[in-house]
UniProtKB/TrEMBL annotation:
Domain PucR C-terminal helix-turn-helix span(s) in chain numbering: 343-397
Protein name as catalogued: PucR family transcriptional regulator
Top-level taxonomic group: Bacteria
Organism: Mycolicibacterium gadium (Mycobacterium gadium)
Transmembrane segments: none
Amino acid sequence: MTWKRPSAQVRKLIRKGAQIIVNAPPEWLDELDAAVLGSNPAIAADPELARAVSRSNQANLFFWATANVRDPGAPVPPNSGPEPVDVARELVRRGLDAYSLDAYRVGEGVAWRRLMRIAFELTSDPAQLHELLDVCSRSISAFVDDTLSAIAAQIDLERDELTRGTHAQRRETVALVLDGAPIPRRRAEDRLGYALTGLHTAAVIWSDEPTGDLARLDRAAESVGHAAGGARPLSVLAGTATRWLWVPGNVTVDTDALLQSVHHAPDVRIAIGATAGGIDGFRRSHFDAITTQQLMARLRSPQQIAQFADVQLVALITTNTDRAAEFVEQTLGDLESAGVELQDTVRTFVAEGCNASRTAARLYTHRNTLLRRLARADELLPRPLAESCVNVAVALDIVRWRGTRG
């Protein structure tokens, strides 16, 4: 493409517009994320991949804008920084291809609409506006094309590297089993080094900070095995900062002990599925763990560990986060913003069958103190607790897992 440099006045306008983008307010970036992730449910449902795509889109936005602050209207080279490379790596490790990069086109459209609004605020001169929009349109289009080509090339490199290792065989075999492909059980077991008969408890281990020493994820996987009675788990590298895990046998994961093992790495998160049997149980427990992971990501839960059995109802109710928020607000009223102590008192009271004596014993508090707290809760609730205890308990569970308690 022959690149014609813009006029001096338009160069000044481009620099001003680029400076505005470099200092973009958070709501602009939220708009970009919402559009990109909303266009691809497969990406949005995977917390690690969604974060990688979000970081890459924002990095591309700032890369283009910074280049135009430095040299307005000049061709912008492709972004070959760490963020696009991370996206390529994550796509390959999930068995996805370059078609998943269509989300970048959605980001391009959002950025272009934002830039047009900025342009109309910078000048009302028709000639300048025409030249400004023409230059920026060609610049953004060429930049995105070149960056996507670079990512596609990186995908090929990552795929070549991945398929040379034994991990590729395990990941491929697990994918076949999870998809219900007709792979013979014995062959799958030989390739995995793991028996698919008996009971399985799956877990997903991931990090919110996919940089630095990722061996902490492997240590967390070992901790899950120890917390489940010392069983040796099957561990599969599902992404740069994600491990899929299966623990064999009829086990109960000691979450208190597990939390003690991983508390020094607060960015490490663990979602645990329900125990189930056979190949179907291998799949079902994994998808339970994935559902739990998605809930933790969707609600931005501060909890480090969650079990499917504890969040199953919350996961169903919060599929639509806006409706869930309405339910909580209408059910709890002012109790939603009350202290943690009062909320936990009410939740425990309902869990104990609304028995004050058992609740007081479980909370190690005096019965009269408990009754005063419950009376205070009734003052805050839109309806008395006796008439709405089930809904109140569910709403408090949502508040607990989304981490917005007062």
